[in-house]
Amino acid sequence: MDDALWFAIGESVLKIIAILIITGLLIRIGKIAIRNFFKVRTRGPLRITERREATLMKLLENVLTYVVYFIAIMMILSALTINVQAMLAGAGIVGLAVGFGAQSLVKDIITGFFIIFEDQFSVGDYVRIGQFEGTVEEIGLRTTKIKSFTGEIHILPNGSIVEVTNFSLFNSVAVLDIGIAYEGDLEYAEKVLQEYLETTTEKYPELVKTPELLGVQQFGASEVVLRIVAESLPMKHWYMGRQLRKDIKRVLDEHGVEIPFPRMVMYSRQEGGEQKEFGK
Amino acid sequence: MDDALWFAIGESVLKIIAILIITGLLIRIGKIAIRNFFKVRTRGPLRITERREATLMKLLENVLTYVVYFIAIMMILSALTINVQAMLAGAGIVGLAVGFGAQSLVKDIITGFFIIFEDQFSVGDYVRIGQFEGTVEEIGLRTTKIKSFTGEIHILPNGSIVEVTNFSLFNSVAVLDIGIAYEGDLEYAEKVLQEYLETTTEKYPELVKTPELLGVQQFGASEVVLRIVAESLPMKHWYMGRQLRKDIKRVLDEHGVEIPFPRMVMYSRQEGGEQKEFGK
Amino acid sequence: MDDALWFAIGESVLKIIAILIITGLLIRIGKIAIRNFFKVRTRGPLRITERREATLMKLLENVLTYVVYFIAIMMILSALTINVQAMLAGAGIVGLAVGFGAQSLVKDIITGFFIIFEDQFSVGDYVRIGQFEGTVEEIGLRTTKIKSFTGEIHILPNGSIVEVTNFSLFNSVAVLDIGIAYEGDLEYAEKVLQEYLETTTEKYPELVKTPELLGVQQFGASEVVLRIVAESLPMKHWYMGRQLRKDIKRVLDEHGVEIPFPRMVMYSRQEGGEQKEFGK
Amino acid sequence: MDDALWFAIGESVLKIIAILIITGLLIRIGKIAIRNFFKVRTRGPLRITERREATLMKLLENVLTYVVYFIAIMMILSALTINVQAMLAGAGIVGLAVGFGAQSLVKDIITGFFIIFEDQFSVGDYVRIGQFEGTVEEIGLRTTKIKSFTGEIHILPNGSIVEVTNFSLFNSVAVLDIGIAYEGDLEYAEKVLQEYLETTTEKYPELVKTPELLGVQQFGASEVVLRIVAESLPMKHWYMGRQLRKDIKRVLDEHGVEIPFPRMVMYSRQEGGEQKEFGK
Amino acid sequence: MDDALWFAIGESVLKIIAILIITGLLIRIGKIAIRNFFKVRTRGPLRITERREATLMKLLENVLTYVVYFIAIMMILSALTINVQAMLAGAGIVGLAVGFGAQSLVKDIITGFFIIFEDQFSVGDYVRIGQFEGTVEEIGLRTTKIKSFTGEIHILPNGSIVEVTNFSLFNSVAVLDIGIAYEGDLEYAEKVLQEYLETTTEKYPELVKTPELLGVQQFGASEVVLRIVAESLPMKHWYMGRQLRKDIKRVLDEHGVEIPFPRMVMYSRQEGGEQKEFGK
Amino acid sequence: MDDALWFAIGESVLKIIAILIITGLLIRIGKIAIRNFFKVRTRGPLRITERREATLMKLLENVLTYVVYFIAIMMILSALTINVQAMLAGAGIVGLAVGFGAQSLVKDIITGFFIIFEDQFSVGDYVRIGQFEGTVEEIGLRTTKIKSFTGEIHILPNGSIVEVTNFSLFNSVAVLDIGIAYEGDLEYAEKVLQEYLETTTEKYPELVKTPELLGVQQFGASEVVLRIVAESLPMKHWYMGRQLRKDIKRVLDEHGVEIPFPRMVMYSRQEGGEQKEFGK
Amino acid sequence: MDDALWFAIGESVLKIIAILIITGLLIRIGKIAIRNFFKVRTRGPLRITERREATLMKLLENVLTYVVYFIAIMMILSALTINVQAMLAGAGIVGLAVGFGAQSLVKDIITGFFIIFEDQFSVGDYVRIGQFEGTVEEIGLRTTKIKSFTGEIHILPNGSIVEVTNFSLFNSVAVLDIGIAYEGDLEYAEKVLQEYLETTTEKYPELVKTPELLGVQQFGASEVVLRIVAESLPMKHWYMGRQLRKDIKRVLDEHGVEIPFPRMVMYSRQEGGEQKEFGK
């Protein structure tokens, strides 16, 4: 290690500091520019769907950050590698590292690009991706953030997003399964439910049309299961399900229709008793 | 960074804007052309099955978009790479990125091509793919969209579609398992059900032929399980299952055939009592 | 983009249209030829097993389609690539795409070839492949179609077919587990069942030989489980199982042999009562 | 497409037909030769274990078929490729296809080779491979066929065979778990069982030695579980298990040892009654 | 092995010892410098969010250690390989080893870099990664340490971190499901709960707003399930859930609203009795 | 195909037969030599642990077989390839096949080598590997054979052996969970058990030390669960568990300590009765 | 095979024997040296944490063995390959084999290196790795041995160790869930438990601080579940859990607080009776 080496180290340290300061400034200026552009745009003629606007702004900031940092890191690395190469004979390892790093990074970015390009989901949509479910908080080039209804944030690298389920594009459907006692009059119960259902659309604006009483979905162990489906506004099916359940409970109570408990027929037998045993 | 660099940057920015405007125009014109072509065609002599027409139109628009955007991106990249290469020594990374991106994109497109070419499913079919089930909303070159009956949209990259189950090509079959009490007369129950089933085809046009009473499918813990299969029009088996279940409940009630609750035989024993214990 | 380019584009569009028309004609003529050949053949001396004939005809049509389309696409691509290469510098991407496409296609075709060459299953066989089960509807070079008994079509790329279970090659065996009460006379029950079983072969021609009463398969919680196996003609085991179950129910009823319900011994205890508690 | 091309096509069609006819003849002659060789051999001095003879004959036929067909296909391909190459510039795809095909084929064949070379199982053995279980029907170079006891044939490519469980090499052991009532005399029950077990070897020649009463395997919820193990001839453990279970039921009945039903201690409590509630 | 070899070995041993001593000193000095820098910094103007400060300090120490050790090992290896190469002809194995080592190391480091760069979580956050859950103890370049609430430390290589769930960024929501008896007055129960919930915000400062009584979430087998959601400060939802549950129990008791036990309707039947059996 | 080809075929057939005969002789002689060597060795001074001797002998025979067969096959292949190459242009396929075969073979052999070199288990040890459990029957270079206690042989390629659990190296521990009634005196039950446990070591030589009564492991639904651990000689824990369970049953019976049945508190309620319903 | 070959074989056999003897001696001498070094060291000034000393000694011996054997095998191979190459033309297979062997070996060693370098766990720590749990018995360069509390040894190749859970670094926490009857006074029960818990720290030195009564964790089907957490010394949480459970049982009994059995409300109904059926 001679003087030239130490000098080279000093020079690159200075370079790196300069790069870092410029990087910081560029990002701040860029973000302000993006925000202003969107403010101005909303008055302009080139309007796009409002739903994508939030997505695009977040994304542009994101792209800006990555591009600036990427160029900065490349510059820092090129400033460093002179020394690294000076010290190590087998410098191919650095190249290998960057190659592998680029691989997963590139996969994330390309998937992210298609998610946005094909408008699979936007910020604010309610989606399910793999085992994670929630409202999209942010779509980045490399990661997507989803906020579950209990408050936690799921951070998914885009490369791990394969199949997406989007709940916000179409009307949602609430599915209610109501158990009715076997010994009761099925048609009377259906009539009671049907009459009630026809009154719901005026009561609940979240309902798109009159809920449908589909019929006998299943013969349960202790009850006949009737299914009701209620098409409601997107993501209002949980709310509507709860409202309808509460009303149906009241309506069935008023008309004396029983929601049965589990049942069992019990045979009492005397042990070793006079029970006729076959073959004896 | 000298002037030539700044000039090159300015030039490519202009190029990119021009490319973007032309791209947008091409796509709008193309889509109108495709729609008109299909409108005209329906009167022409070269008719193909109507079921595939919707698929083809959606697809052509899709192909148009991808091809135009692909060429545009290539042009933008070629406009950009001059500068990127000017700034970075190791520009092989960009090539690597495009290579990896093309890989998954190509896999999606080729699978998508075969799905359409082999007519595995069309827009409007009810399909199951992996764990997702619903009506096909759109078949694209890269992704397929399926709408589940509860309203959510599943977006599947074609490359992740392996085994497809299509419910819309043939008649569907409703399967009903009816539990009959052990202590009842099995043959009487079968006669009652058989008589009823023979009246169903005239009542329900969705039935393709008289439902079949297959026989004793299983000895359950508390009941003898009879199986009925009813061939119905495609995707009408859920509806028919519900109708038949309702009718069967009524018919069995009328003839006094019991659908049994879970049963248990209970031996009451006195603890520490005079129960004869073996070996004592 | 000069005139030569536009001219080249025009030329290839014409070529492509010509290719498409010839392709369509060739396929229609080929299919008619194949069908006639098979009609003639059935009278000729070179007969092969009838079971494979349907498979072969479907397959030949399939091969014809693929080969003709493959050549057509190659010609179209070669007509196109001149222009593509003229526009893009890095045209290696197209080669990459074809390479990857060929990979999965080749894997499907080779597996398909072995399925037919080794006669693993023919059209009409009942098979289970992975989680899919049903009658083989069509064996293609790239995909196999299976129709489940409830009417849906499963479309499997041959490359995803690994282990195949074929139910149609040998006789099937119906397995019946009959629960007998613990307190009854086991030997009497076995005698009753044995006597009945010996009468079955003349009643049911689907039975290959007298069903066997294997013996006590298991000590259940509430019953002694007897197992009966009945060898029947291929795929008739479900039918025979139902018939035998119905008969056995009748025979056991007639001889007073009980099929027991779940049982439980219940000790009633007074809480906080005079129950002798240990150690106190 | 000039005349030379059409002529070349005609020539190769003729070649292919000739190859096909010769192939067919070779296989028939070869199979007869193999069968005669084995018939002669059985009288010769070079005897090998009979268990492997069936395996070897099936295998030799199998090898013959593959080798002859392989050479035939190679010849056909070499006859074809002249034309294919004449038509297509990028003929590397055909080579790629053969390469990929050879890969999985080779993997299957090598695994198959080791299965036979190491004598992991022979035709007629009862084996479990992955989730499939049954008697080995045929060991081929590429696939192995297993026949389950209910009659279906499982066809496994050898490359998917990793861990093999062979039941036919050693004696099998039947394991019986007998539940005895908690309140009974455990030692008396053990004495009764032990006395019975000592009489079994003379009654059942399938037993290799007197079954062993291991002791209290588990404290169940309602019973003390005693375990008996009975070493029997290979694959006779299911038969012996059923025989022993039937006898043990009879012996326990004769000595008044109870096999208990599920039990439960029930406390009846008056609701809102004078039950002393803590802290009040 | 001649003298030169032994001399070379001696020389490299000396080199290695020198390298190890210098390495040790560098790391100690570096760590002290980092800590002082952070102490000074807290008074300076360049403040960053406090939450990231702990992360950054741990990380810088971590980077220092890796870089110094990496250079040291490279130097040791370069000192060693002379001899290794002198002894072995095929020295490519050493290169292979380093290559593979670098691969997984690089993957860990790159993922680690993005976790910190994108601020996915900081030291002190409560996160779930795969099946592991707990408070982040340390974020290193290669591994992340998570401390579960029961005290064990989970050590995860960063390369195995894909999807991250962070509970500390937003308010948490406690979800309470309360079962109410079917036969009771649902609206009365809702009124009681609602009145109580409105008093909670002043009692518990951890609550962000008044908990919401959503409504009838489900018709259970024995109870109507009401759902309450309570938004609370981050990670206070477990505490709030317990407090609310205790209070609700007391409030329901005071107002006589029953939380029901499992229920069953029991039909007692006489065996073989005069029960009207159908069809007889 | 000219005469030289036929001559070459004849020549190689002769060569192959010669190779096969020599191979067979070499293996027989080699095996006898190995056995004699081990017989002599047992009297010699170079003794190694007896546990590894059986392993080594089996292994040496195994190595001998593989090496001799490997050389034989190589010779046969080299005798064959002349002709194969003469017939086929693209002979690279044979090389590919050998390459792939060598890959999995090499992986198996290397893992097998480390299993023996690190003495992970020897012939006779009781091990669990993946889902297979039993006594090691044979450790080969390519496969390991494990015999389960019910008599079947599991044949595992060494390459599929990753994590090994060896039960024969250290003492085994029997774990007994004893349920005691809630209403009984826990300390009395512990005293009874403790007194009994102190008498066990003299009764059972398989016990290494007095079994320990750890304490209350769990509050079960109907019982307090006490845990006892008994360190015993390797693989004697199943035997000791059974013995201790039998004794403990007797001891608890003698002291009147109850092992409780499942319990349930039953509230009888009059339906629609005067039960005070809240809110009404 | 001429004389030179036989001579070469003889020469290499002699070489190999010499190598083996020297190898054996080197290892024995090396191990003694390592042990003495550690004995001396404990008195010297360069002390490191005692916890890592055992790890380091085991490891050094391990490294010694591998390095010496590796050099020996390389020498043996180089002695052998002369002959192997003389016999086989395609000797590349040997190189391939070594390459593949090195791959998995290198992966194991690198992971092992990081486990020790980052001090993830030491000999004697209680860890969970994947599905295996126990005390670390030995950390080698290639494998890690874990001894479970029931006595078996798990042998894990380091390459299969990904996520590690270490229980020995921090205090452990015992978690106790106590069920309290719904009808009892919750606050009284909490007071009783709280009073008891405050007396525990002086009784049990293993407790780090007074156990905390967190509150109502859950509304169970038949009980209110209270949760107690008790921070204790590392790995003492199982012991403390058992002690606390025993004490709590006694304390609750003394204060008359009931730990409830499963409960059920039973409605007795007369079948076909005068039960008011709805709709009739």
From TrEMBL, chains A, B, C, D, E, F, G:
Gene3D superfamilies referenced in this protein's UniProt entry, alphabetically: 1.10.287.1260, 2.30.30.60, 3.30.70.100
Q: Which domain of life is it from?
A: Bacteria
Q: Give residue ranges for domain Mechanosensitive ion channel MscS C-terminal.
A: 175-259
A Pfam match is MS_channel_3rd
Domain Mechanosensitive ion channel transmembrane helices 2/3 spans what residues? 62-103
Domain Mechanosensitive ion channel MscS span(s) in chain numbering: 105-168
- Which membrane topology describes this protein? Multi-pass membrane protein
* Cell location: Cell membrane
Q: Which GO terms describe its cellular component?
A: plasma membrane
TM segments? 12-38, 59-80, 86-106
Question: Mind listing the GO molecular function terms for this protein?
Answer: mechanosensitive monoatomic ion channel activity
UniProt KW keywords: Cell membrane, Membrane, Transmembrane, Transmembrane helix
Similarity comment: family membership? Belongs to the MscS (TC 1.A.23) family.
**Purpose:** May play a role in resistance to osmotic downshock.
Supply the name of the protein.
Mechanosensitive ion channel family protein
Q: State the species of origin.
A: Mesobacillus boroniphilus
